[in-house]
Amino acid sequence: MATDKDVLDQLLAGRDPQELFAKDGLPDELKKALSERMLAAELDDHLGWEAEAGADNRRNGSSKKTMLTGTSKVTLDIPRDRSGTFDPRLIAKYQRRFPDFDTKIISMYARGMTVREIRGHLDELYGIDVSPDLISTVTDAVLETVAEWQGRPLDACYPLRRRVDDPPDHRLILLRL
Fold it and tell me: At what angle do helices 132-150 and 115-126 cross, to 10 degrees?
């Protein structure tokens, strides 16, 4: 999907180009606006279902929630309903991180970085101060999956190419285990 040039011009109007991609820049503003719109749509859908069931439930303001994204912290207004039955799917209750944030931590951990190195890296790149406990919690969540993958049965042989620039059918070597 191509973005309309007029929409881009409106988004960029009056902005300093140096600050567009800085902390709390345009991508974070868009992530906040899109997340809040999706949460509002979720509540609309929830209230529609309850109205069909005959319940007398309606909107009841919002609460603030700070989420860690891949680039910064974003404070969202999470809509509420009067009866307290709304449980958003986009950002579940007690969730404090967008999924891509966990993926980045796991990627750094898989590359051999220590918890302290990951913490320093996130602080240096994104200005996000996370606790070592948070990083440990994220990496511990995938340790079981990693152990399963490491213990998987291997095939008897694997085809390998000699060089990366060789054509796929040229000079194949079979590695036997």
Answer: 120
CA distance 139 to 102: 8
Distance, in Å, from the CA atom of 99 to the CA atom of 92, rounded to the nearest integer, reads: 11
114 has a pLDDT exceeding 70:
yes
C-alpha 127/C-alpha 23 separation (Å) is 8
Check: CB of residue 27 under 8 Å from CB of residue 21.
Answer: yes
Q: Mind listing the pLDDT tens digit for each residue in 124-142? A: 776 777 788 888 888 887 7
Domain extents in the chain: 1-91, 97-177
Rg (CA), the chain: 23
Architecture of the domain spanning 97-177: Orthogonal Bundle (1.10)
- Mode of pairing for the β-strands spanning 73-81 and 172-176: unpaired
